[in-house]
Amino acid sequence: MTDTIASLQKQSKLDALDNRVLLCHALGVNRIALITQSERVLTAEESQRFNALAQRRLDGEPIAYIVGQREFFGLPFEVNDAVLIPRPDTELLVELTLDRLPAQGRVLDMGTGSGAIAVSLAHTRKDADVTALDVSPDALAVAQRNAANNGARVTFLQSDWYAALQGAAPFDVIASNPPYIASDDCHLSEGDLRYEPVGALTDHADGLSALRIIIAGAPQHLKPQGWLLMEHGYDQSAAVRALLSEAGYDEVQSWQDLAGIERVTGGKLNNLLST
């Protein structure tokens, strides 16, 4: 039987969105073309290409890794298995950072991964001085390509948290989406998380160790009254607020994502903490 676009859509075991995305990717066409060319007969190579992609998705591979791209903050980002897949929840962290970044301000993105946070900030605020760091050279390579492809000016550093920042000028805002899933969390063996880099997901401990390191080290790298903003798990906001308060930060608070979950917590550096 000869496949058409319409017949492949009907036969597919994928949900409608995944099916459409993979068809567009396999055929190199947009969504409009799928509609207007629905009765186009596909070549054997096109059918085989789509079926191979569909099988990868049915086996559980994330759609973003299959097509090699995910949109974030209105921008296209290359993704592969060296980096986490950017999620809409993290756009809240970008928005909060933009709200607190002064003109010609300096901002640090810790654990940048694909560069989604840093590139979105630099693309939106051309005046800002944006630095991003990650311990993974493979992740940094992806982030650098994303910055170049989106015309964003970002300084990238390979660094184990603050290690490469000795002597650097302080920042107005430090933002981070660190590994925060506890090592015994069952979600690590479910869904897309099975395919994502485990070191970017979990701290291999209680889910708070990376957040503790960031909180403890930030005073040495923030300007007086500078902000520290961190994304965390759905049930960690109270614990992160307590860590910030115990460390002496001011205006400690949490912000909700679109689902009403407290997703980002932050505080302002107390002048007494400044070095």
From TrEMBL:
Keywords, comma-separated and alphabetical: Methyltransferase, S-adenosyl-L-methionine, Transferase
Domain Release factor glutamine methyltransferase N-terminal: 8-68
Family that this chain belongs to: Belongs to the protein N5-glutamine methyltransferase family. PrmC subfamily.
Class of enzymatic activity (EC top level): transferase
Function: Methylates the class 1 translation termination release factors RF1/PrfA and RF2/PrfB on the glutamine residue of the universally conserved GGQ motif.
Protein name: Release factor glutamine methyltransferase
GO biological process: methylation
Record EC number: 2.1.1.297
Residues binding substrate, per UniProt: 177-180
Electron transport listed as a keyword: no
Domain Methyltransferase small stretches: 90-184
Molecular function GO labels: nucleic acid binding; peptide chain release factor N(5)-glutamine methyltransferase activity
Pfam families according to UniProt: MTS, PrmC_N
Domain of life, source organism: Bacteria
Keyword Transferase: yes
SUPFAM superfamilies: S-adenosyl-L-methionine-dependent methyltransferases (SSF53335)
Species of origin: Duganella flavida
Protein residues bound to S-adenosyl-L-methionine: 111-115, 134, 161, 177
Reactions catalysed, as given in the entry: L-glutaminyl-[peptide chain release factor] + S-adenosyl-L-methionine = N(5)-methyl-L-glutaminyl-[peptide chain release factor] + S-adenosyl-L-homocysteine + H(+)
